[in-house]
Design brief:
seven-stranded antiparallel beta sheet, globular
Length: about 325
């Protein structure tokens, strides 16, 4: 059962609570004329507006999937019952039982003290993504510039048949639409399932704080990719924050293991490297993605067997590999 504050059942309680927190900004973007002005590439968008639009697009993409499913969902909204009709039919208790109470129970489990009994030692590792299982492959999604209406790149994520997954496709830098938030094409990204907490708030990777490196068992094509850890904050201004690092691959039939310390990941927002750099905190990661952004047209193929976390206590070179400057307040992000 679903409802929304506008007396029409359209989505779950978490999204309803999120709509309260962003009602003022949502009302600004509700006008179609204003939307067309914001979506124009020639207009000068502020960073806060651009971040909010990416945040709203990510929410709609996770709730509905493709734009076709979003159109079907909007059509189904008109046929659903209003909140007043639910009260008249005596279904209010069922609404709270099926929607609100499960979220409250989930929130109560999140605020419980952290269980620290599972300690890890030197050279211990934890497999977080094992692509030998078909259930793990189904948790990942692929998005290209073609899905965003910008370019003509294609990509897919298919099992290889021998305990790994193939991230392959064709990159095209041709732009077919200029009236979007993206100023370039030629990208393909594979996303893991986003970890969400109660009421659609970001959850925390509590077990990741023990580890220092990420391990990827890969077989590449010689192109370079980008590993991303998405770290959205509770504030929508930080929804597109992520930590990235380049993943170099070798061509040929041989497997390789990429070992990258967390201290080498740099902070950026929507592709823009932030002026203020902070060390990556694994606790705040809610989603992982791998993208190809080498701006080279042609086919690509990356085979991935496992993604793991490693605890290396001998890595004492640096906690953070980038310089940190004292910058004027309220001028940089």
């Amino acid at each position: 059962m679903y409802f929304r504050s506008s007396l029409r059942i359209i989505t779950s309680v978490p999204y309803c609570f999120q709509s309260f927190t962003t009602s003022r900004t949502y009302s600004i973007l509700s006008n179609s004329n204003v939307n067309s002005q914001f979506l124009s590439s020639s207009s000068h968008l502020s960073q806060s507006y651009r971040t909010f639009m990416f945040w709203r697009a990510n929410i709609n993409r996770e709730l509905y999937g493709t734009p076709t499913k979003a159109a079907a969902t909007r059509k189904r909204r008109r046929l659903q019952k209003s909140f007043t009709q639910i009260i008249r039919e005596g279904q209010l208790w069922r609404l709270f039982k099926d929607v609100l109470f499960p979220e409250i129970n989930k929130w109560w489990k999140e605020i419980q003290p952290w269980d620290r009994r599972h300690e890890f030692f030197h050279n211990d590792y934890l497999v977080i993504h094992d692509f030998a299982k078909n259930e793990e492959v189904k948790k990942w999604t692929v998005r290209t510039d073609l899905d965003e209406g910008v370019g003509e790149s294609t990509a897919e994520l298919v099992p290889s048949g021998h305990g790994s997954v193939l991230f392959r496709g064709h990159i095209s830098s041709k732009m077919v639409n200029q009236n979007t938030l993206y100023n370039k094409s030629g990208f393909a990204i594979m996303f893991s399932e986003r970890l969400t907490g109660s009421f659609l708030l970001p959850a925390h990777q509590k077990g990741w704080t023990y580890f220092t490196h990420i391990l990827l068992r890969i077989r590449g094509d010689g192109r370079f990719y980008e590993i991303r850890f998405h770290t959205p904050d509770h504030d929508h201004h930080h929804w597109s924050d992520m930590y990235s690092m380049v993943l170099y691959t070798r061509g040929g039939p041989y497997w390789s293991t990429a070992k990258i310390p967390f201290g080498q990941f740099f902070r950026n927002n929507m592709g823009r490297i932030s002026d203020k750099q902070y060390p990556f905190q694994p606790l705040t990661c809610t989603q992982m993605s791998i993208s190809i952004l080498d701006a080279a047209d042609g086919p690509f193929e990356l085979e991935i067997a496992q993604i793991s976390l490693l605890r290396d206590l001998r890595y004492t070179y640096d906690k953070f590999a980038y310089e940190q400057y004292t910058l004027p307040p309220y001028t940089t992000t």
